[in-house]
């Protein structure tokens, strides 16, 4: 943000503002959601996570997707970087949702917490 002071004095639709906003929303906010969920879901549902490998794949897709998307906003070249970044981010969130769903299905008795958690995952998918 220190390197893009001029971006804050102009119109809000500025490439650097878009990059910073997506870095904060996706890079900080969504990563916190995913990480905290992977930590808390096994506790709330009283079962192990369906797949640790799937969680690592999710992280491995999300991080380069975020870098590609933020880079494409920063240089404002909507092209292959932006599209690949968006696809990687969406794939990561979909895999997260699948992992949460399969974790919830491992439990014998369904609870209301499962419904709320899965609904939140679906909302996250629609948001990303």
Short overview:
The protein is mainly alpha-helical.
Any descriptors?
mainly alpha; 4 helices; 128 residues
Topology:
Layout: H1 15-45, H2 52-75, H3 80-105, H4 112-127
Helix pairs in contact: 1-2, 1-3, 2-3, 3-4
Please provide a written account of the structure.
This protein is mostly helical. The chain has one domain (10-127). Helices cover 76% and strands 0% of the residues. The chain has helices at residues 15-45, 52-75, 80-105, 112-127. α1 runs antiparallel to α2 (52-75), α1 (15-45) packs parallel to α3 and α2 (52-75) packs antiparallel against α3 (80-105). The longest helix has 31 residues, at 15-45. The chain is elongated.
Q: Overall mean pLDDT score?
A: 89
Order of helices and strands: HHHH
Distance between the termini: 24 Å
Q: How would a textbook summarize the main sheet?
A: none
The number of helical segments is 4
Helix content: over 70%
The general outline is: elongated
Count of discrete structural domains: 1
Kindly state the number of beta strands. 0
Rg, Cα atoms, Å: 17 Å
Q: SS-based structural class?
A: mainly alpha
Task: Detail the poorly predicted runs.
Answer: none
Give the amount of beta strand, in percent: under 5%
């Amino acid at each position: 943000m220190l390197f893009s002071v001029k971006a804050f004095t102009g119109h809000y639709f500025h490439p650097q503002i878009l990059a910073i906003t997506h870095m904060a929303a996706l890079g900080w906010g969504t990563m916190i959601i995913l990480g905290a969920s992977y930590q808390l879901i096994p506790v709330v549902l009283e079962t192990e996570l369906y797949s640790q490998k799937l969680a690592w794949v999710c992280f491995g897709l999300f991080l380069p997707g975020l870098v590609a998307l933020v880079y494409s906003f920063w240089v404002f070249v909507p092209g292959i970087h932006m599209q690949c970044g968006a696809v990687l981010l969406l794939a990561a969130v979909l895999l997260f949702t699948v992992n949460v769903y399969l974790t919830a299905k491992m439990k014998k008795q369904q609870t209301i917490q499962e419904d709320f958690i899965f609904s939140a995952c679906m909302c996250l998918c629609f948001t990303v």
